[in-house]
Amino acid sequence: MYTRATFCTLWLLICAVLLVPLTGKAVAAAQAWYPVDIDVWQPPFNAQRQRSPITYMPLEKASRSWQICASIPHLKDAYWLAVNYALITEARRLGVELSLFEAGGYEYPDMQREHVKQCLADGADGLIVSAVSQDGLEDLLQKAESQGVPVVDLINGMQSTNISARIAADFWDAGSLIGTYLLEKLEDGEAALKVAWFPGPSGASWVSAGDAGFTEAIRDSNIEVVATRYGDTGHAAQSQLVEEVLDQHGDGLDYIVGTAVTASAAVEVLRKRGMANDVGVLAYYYSPGVHRGIRRGTILAAPSDQQALQARIAVDVMVRVLEKKEFVQHAAPRPLLIDRTKLKDWDTSTTLAPRGFRPVYSTSN
């Protein structure tokens, strides 16, 4: 028969156990993501990637509860879920209101346009936009500027002069990092490595940049790209592309390299085909699926563009713009190459949403 004192003791022990995972580094990450080292483009928006490192410190609080709208391509994969998490939590930390819209995929530019129109019609003080296409919002960006509504270009990149700031790692770096990693797999005198390359949806700025960086890294090397396939970053779409390439080039293929969704899909497809030990898998950006794959050894490596940090900085920059305070006009953390040897010491909160996080569309929820 348990006494009341026994139950109290058991309850305290349970609480102690539950609190253990929230100590140390995890608590520090949850409490403060700053200061953080980032690169600042000088001059802003230069295409030559001329940058200088600085240590970034955000504001403690906004001076008022600004109304901010954020538009992102989708929430179909964990990359954008991390962005969702970071946008909402940073807005709450600063004490501003943020409403999030997602277009549903890169194949729905008209949906993103409608969301931006709605934000402007609803009187948003500022817009944070991760664009579906490089130039599909230009007329709306002009309208925002004419209304005095600042725009922060987040992650994907837009070809526009009607933005106040850009917080976007250069996916050229990410493509170059994974290409360089692949080069290191070559041994002197080894026959050409055959690679299938899946850059992502055609027309997106980040895809063009990643493709350019990867191509440049392996140029004049003994690496042969036997197939390149563009497509939406939904799991089904990437699985189908991987299946098609394996049907055509499966014999002798050495590596599959592509988006985080491609990598996760490729692991499944290769396992079903009994080819898991024959073809190596790499991604050129990060996700929980990629993280699990690296930990298990089914994915070799991937760069992280630290998208959660980018999203947090974008919210802070927006508040600075609205409050007419000094801000970085073009900046981002530099991508980091992660493989199994680096997992132990890497702070995943820069890149991944907490386990169990579900989409949140407003700070009022």
Describe how the helices and strands are arranged.
Blueprint: H1 4-19, H2 25-31, E1 36-41, E2 51-56, E3 67-72, H3 78-94, E4 97-102, H4 109-121, E5 126-129, H5 138-146, E6 151-154, E7 165-167, H6 171-183, E8 193-200, H7 205-218, E9 223-230, H8 235-249, E10 255-258, H9 260-272, E11 280-283, H10 288-296, E12 301-304, H11 307-322, E13 330-332, E14 336-339
Parallel strand pairs: 3-4, 3-5, 5-6, 6-7, 7-13, 8-9, 8-10, 10-11
Antiparallel strand pairs: 1-2, 1-13, 12-14
Helix pairs in contact: 3-11, 6-7, 8-9
Short description:
With 365 residues, this protein is of the alpha/beta class.
Poorly predicted runs are 1-29
Number of domains: 2
Which percent bin holds the helix content? 25-40%
Strand content: 15-25%
Query: What is the CATH third-level topology name of the largest domain?
Result: Rossmann fold
Rg for CA atoms: 22 Å
Q: Just give the CATH class of the largest domain.
A: Alpha Beta
Mean pLDDT: 90
Q: In order across it, which strands form the biggest sheet?
A: 2-1-13-7-6-5-3-4
Architecture overview:
The chain contains 11 helices and 14 strands. It is of the alpha/beta class and 365 residues long. The chain has 2 domains: 33-169 and 306-335, Response regulator (Rossmann fold), CATH 3.40.50; 171-304, 3-Layer(aba) Sandwich (Rossmann fold). Helix 6 runs parallel beside helix 7 (205-218) and helix 8 crosses helix 9. The longest helix is centred in the first third of the chain and has 17 residues, at 78-94. The termini are far apart. Mean pLDDT is 90; it is low at 1-29.
